[in-house]
Structure to design on (667 residues):
């Protein structure tokens, strides 16, 4: 255990040098930020329908990463753990003030149908992409590298869900229902939501994918499931991710017989 | 959940409310400009935020952190953002301002130094070309929020890397003048063919009819052909409920932090009295030529016309006038005959002696006259029916 104030100095050192941090240092700043913010209970989480971890990541991007300015400028104010907490609290209040209905354009029936359909990854995986307008080799190479990296860097349960659930049919297997992961992946339901395999309750269909890991992975490729124009690329990216998960995930799912109930109606 | 990210309330708060850093400086009693301090003291929101910060800063910090608790790995999108930033830092961009460079502005800095604006988030500008005013370039604002892309926002992509993620889309509807000493860093350097695509889209932005609002799909992107180029943009703006209207208003206003220093630099470059004289010439043109209207030329997004020292007027189908202040303290008046009937332009001195004459017909419809504010002159424009159709005094204000 460490006192928060003990972390003021390393936080300040990284914060002030944001304009010149290495990848490793950015990662350290992110981890430090998450550790500090995780130490406080924020009542502002209530009603946001977002996991705290996602709020912290969004805060990090909007308030730490994007406002980076040159060291020594007057706007580059010194930071400490409590100030960071205060910045984050303000950010949560601003999120609460955002009325999703006001910030969203109303959808007609056809659009709504399309947005809901877009939530189904299977919908993307089953359709054949039209590659006539793609710089094919370049795109595939990029997506392949990104898929490998994603699988390597995420926690093992991500690979298990992909290999044995979303992408199982690529290996000629029947997808294992999510409920069968219950005894082997702690908080299996929340993790399925986090990955983007389950729609979080009470959320706007259009935006539900954005904070999920699959949504974030697609975003890292500049792809948006709500953009028609990206759909062929998303199909390619997801197929590549599935292929890579079959190659990469060597662990057998420790739930023998799980596939026996593959057609669980609850799934 | 939010359909477009970041939500507008978050963005508006970020761009226009007193920044967290400013509140912190105020709370610590740092030396702030008097006007800024007064504005903070009278702003209820700022006072509330300061009040919230005070206990946070002063409380005995008893919170502890479990150092052994696992921190989840970096989300993939954040990882890519970081990688792109580091790659852009390591790239070797030209140290000389170059068309196609995207530069970052960390603080509003004019010819007299910092303007002490509370710039919570740095701005990015794509440089297109220099103007006649030293150190002032013409370009477009560049922003990171691609969810809000409209039909005239060109999205940058992998072909533009290395490129800092602060620069993700070029706002062709938001042309801008930039004072170079405001620049803190180069974020990217577009390849010539990509800059050509930006310019082609900028021209289309001016001459194309308004896109069909029925095609609006906030958050969607489309691939389009613009001349010989393929570009990615958003879709047309929809009705009043489309959040991208508000987004554009916010960034148009925030870009003042770039415009104001440039406007100061342009004003400073003019000899004393020149701007007053230009104003008087403009007044004389309007007095003498009925039906004269300001207009934006097609070349506007490519160059200099949004500057306060260049003005365009026309009587549609008959004639066009462009009045330009030059860097050497003179003015240039460009006159273009738009009708088939020839026009004659004469510049007379106080004794009605002809100092300059031009015959404008279809083979030679344009003349450029150089005007000196120190000399009293009269411009006479006429045709065969009425040789003195317009008589325009071009005197300096104190000579009139």
């Amino acid at each position: 255990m460490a006192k928060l104030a003990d972390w003021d100095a390393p936080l300040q050192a990284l914060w002030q040098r944001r304009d010149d941090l290495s990848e490793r240092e950015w990662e350290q700043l992110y981890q430090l930020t998450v550790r500090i913010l995780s130490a406080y209970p924020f009542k502002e989480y209530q009603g946001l329908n977002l996991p705290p971890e996602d709020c912290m990541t969004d805060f990090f991007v909007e308030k730490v990463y994007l406002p980076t300015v040159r060291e020594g400028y007057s706007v580059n104010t010194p930071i400490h753990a409590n100030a960071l907490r205060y910045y984050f609290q303000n950010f949560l209040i601003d999120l609460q003030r955002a009325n999703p209905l006001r910030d969203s354009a109303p959808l007609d029936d056809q659009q709504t149908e399309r947005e809901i359909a877009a939530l189904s990854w299977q919908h993307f995986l089953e359709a054949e992409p039209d590659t006539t307008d793609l710089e094919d080799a370049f795109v595939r190479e990029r997506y392949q590298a990104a898929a490998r990296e994603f699988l390597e860097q995420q926690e093992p349960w991500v690979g298990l869900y992909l290999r044995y659930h979303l992408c199982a049919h690529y290996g000629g297997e029947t997808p294992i229902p999510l409920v069968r992961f219950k005894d082997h992946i702690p908080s299996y339901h929340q993790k399925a939501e986090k990955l983007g395999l389950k729609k979080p309750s009470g959320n706007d269909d259009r935006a539900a994918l954005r904070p999920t890991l699959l949504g974030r992975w697609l975003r890292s490729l500049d792809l948006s499931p709500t953009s028609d124009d990206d759909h062929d690329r998303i199909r390619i990216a997801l197929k590549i991710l599935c292929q890579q998960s079959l190659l990469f995930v060597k662990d057998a799912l420790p739930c023998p017989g799980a596939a026996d109930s593959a057609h669980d109606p609850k799934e | 959940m939010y359909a477009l990210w970041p939500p507008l309330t978050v963005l508006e708060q970020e761009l226009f409310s007193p920044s967290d850093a400013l509140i912190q400086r105020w709370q610590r009693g740092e030396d702030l400009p008097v006007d800024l301090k007064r504005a903070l003291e009278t702003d209820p929101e700022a006072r509330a935020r300061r009040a919230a910060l005070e206990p946070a800063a002063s409380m005995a910090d008893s919170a502890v952190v479990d150092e052994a608790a696992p921190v989840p790995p970096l989300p993939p999108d954040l990882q890519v953002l970081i990688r792109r930033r580091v790659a852009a830092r390591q790239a070797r961009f030209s140290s000389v301002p170059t068309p196609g460079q995207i530069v970052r502005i960390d603080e509003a800095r004019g010819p007299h130094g910092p303007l002490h604006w509370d710039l919570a988030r740095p701005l990015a500008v794509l440089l297109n070309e220099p103007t006649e005013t030293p150190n002032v370039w013409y370009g477009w604002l560049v922003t990171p929020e691609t969810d809000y892309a409209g039909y005239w926002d060109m999205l940058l992509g992998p072909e533009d890397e290395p490129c800092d993620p602060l620069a993700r889309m070029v706002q062709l509807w938001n042309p801008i003048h930039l004072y170079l000493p405001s620049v803190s860093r180069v974020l990217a350097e577009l390849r010539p063919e990509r800059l050509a695509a930006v310019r082609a889209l900028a021209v289309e932005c001016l001459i194309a009819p308004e896109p069909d609002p029925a095609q609006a799909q906030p958050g969607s992107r489309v691939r389009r052909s613009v001349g010989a180029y393929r570009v990615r943009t958003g879709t047309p703006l929809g009705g009043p409920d489309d959040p991208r209207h508000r987004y554009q208003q916010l960034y148009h206003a925030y870009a003042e932090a770039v415009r104001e220093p440039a406007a100061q630099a342009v004003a400073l470059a003019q000899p004393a009295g020149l701007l007053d004289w230009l104003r008087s010439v403009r007044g004389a043109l309007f007095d003498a030529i009925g039906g004269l209207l300001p207009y934006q030329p097609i070349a506007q997004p490519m160059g200099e016309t949004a500057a306060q020292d260049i003005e365009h007027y026309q009587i549609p189908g008959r004639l066009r006038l462009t009045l330009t202040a030059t860097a050497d303290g003179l003015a240039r008046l460009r006159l273009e005959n738009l009708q088939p009937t020839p026009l004659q332009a004469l510049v007379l001195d106080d004794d009605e002696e002809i100092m300059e004459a031009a015959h404008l017909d279809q083979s030679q419809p344009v003349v450029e006259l150089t005007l000196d504010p120190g000399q009293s002159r009269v411009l006479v424009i006429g045709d065969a029916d009425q040789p003195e159709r317009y008589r325009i005094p071009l005197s300096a204000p104190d000579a009139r």
